[in-house]
Specification:
Shape: globular
Low-confidence stretches: none
Number of strands: 7
Helix content: 10-25%
Number of domains: 1
Organism: Phreatobacter cathodiphilus
CATH architecture: 2-Layer Sandwich
Strand content: 25-35%
Oligomer: single chain
GO cellular component, one term: cytosol
GO molecular function: deaminase activity
InterPro entries: RutC-like_sf, YjgF/YER057c/UK114
Largest sheet: 5 strands, mixed
Protein name: Enamine deaminase RidA
Length: 129
C-alpha cells in the first residue's frame, strides 16, 4: 500500500499533489518515458489540455499493460513550454489522478522535439506484488 504524505508541519501543496509518497520494499515499479500529446493517428491537438489528455491516455495504456492503474502513480513529472499552458495541463492532470494525489513536479521548458508539442508527462508507478 502506498502512503501519500502531506505533513501538517508543511504548507499545503499549491495544487493537486502530495508532498511525498512512501513505497514499501518489495513493490513492483513502473517507470514511464515522457509522453507527448500525440494521437494514435499522428495528430497533435492545438491546446495544451488536449495534449495532456493524450499524455495521460498513453500513460493509462502503460499502467494497464503492467497490471496497474492511476491509483498506483507515485510521482508525476510534467513539462510545459509556457506558463500559459499550466492551467490546461493542470485541468487534465486533475481529471486523471486519484485522491490522495501522487507527488508531482511541473516545470516550464523551452521546447520539445517539435514546436507543436506543448506538454510532456512522465510518471513512476508502484504496486505491491
Amino acid at each position: 500500500m502506498l502512503e501519500k504524505l502531506t505533513p501538517a508541519a508543511m504548507p499545503a501543496p499549491f495544487a493537486k499533489y502530495s508532498h511525498a509518497v512512501v513505497v514499501p520494499a518489495g513493490t513492483r515499479m513502473l517507470f514511464c518515458s515522457g509522453q507527448l500529446g500525440l494521437a494514435p493517428d499522428g495528430a497533435i491537438p492545438e491546446s495544451a489540455e488536449a495534449q495532456a489528455d493524450l499524455c495521460f491516455a498513453a500513460i493509462g495504456h502503460m499502467l494497464a499493460a503492467a497490471g496497474m492503474d492511476v491509483a498506483d502513480i507515485v510521482r508525476i513529472n510534467a513539462f510545459v513550454t509556457d506558463r500559459a499552458h499550466m492551467a490546461g495541463y493542470m485541468a487534465s492532470r486533475d481529471r486523471h489522478v486519484t485522491s490522495p494525489p501522487p507527488a508531482s513536479t511541473l516545470m516550464i521548458v523551452t521546447g520539445f522535439t517539435r514546436p507543436e508539442f506543448k506538454v510532456e508527462v512522465e510518471v513512476v508507478a508502484a504496486k505491491a506484488g
